[in-house]
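Folds vary. Our protein:
___
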Amino acid sequence: MKQALFTKEDKYTMVDHQGTPVHSDRASVNGTSLHYRFAGTGAPVVLLHGIPKTGYHWRHLLPLLSDQYTVIVPDLRGLGDSDHPATGYDSATMSDDIAALMAQLGHDTYHVVGEDWGAVIGYQLAVRHPQQVKALVFAEALLPGFNFEQHTALTPENAAGLFLWHVGFYFKADVPEMLIAGHERELITYLIKSERRFPDTATADALDEYVRCYSLPGGIRSMLAVYRAMLVDGQQNRQAAQTKLTLPVLALGGDAFIGENNEGIMRQVAHNVTGHVFHAGHDLAEEVPKEMAAVLLPFLAAHS
């Protein structure tokens, strides 16, 4: 790995357990270019962020892991400071991006921690690369093909509970791009704060960074492309689930959002599942990072 350091004056610097700025680099993999950060020593752990976030989402959790693990934090295809290709936004292709990155970095085996869409991609990574993935953490995510789509329907039950209104909106071609352009901050701030139990954890630096990245040329297009691949993802996941995962899976939820349903979803697609629910909303690594690390570290240690 090359060692291009951020400066300590950088507002958006991520630091390791010693307060040292993490390293940053790019890699050409699977027909695109990914930006990634890395820090620490020991067995590798890759952290996969969701939407509308970037690898910066993990800034609080990374230093709680980097004294024991080599932590790799990519920006997913089309997101963050990674490139914005025209295609390849289904979760299988995006998981192959990560597999190629980890192989290029020399990691034959590794743990995968994913949240939101990063967890969906993490599931496909475990399915498609079972010899490389030692354990999977599936945090605060619904899985296409397994009741995700049902939460997009306008029903009394959804309207009173987990109604994912934005998914259908994103599926309409061209109109979301038109309406979101120039209003990236309003959309991202609303989505992130409304899905948390503790909205004040959506700090100004994080919101600024997310808005910066999604406002880049191709940023919103790429975000929408991930959602627009959801029906393909559902087909991929149903096919994959015909053979359940045998590796250890830790399903993590926040009681104010998906909660214990994370464990139920994983039990449909994996044999060896344990679960934990936090007093939190959708963004565990920003809302309750210390509590998350306290559950995550023993699980990783048990399967290293």
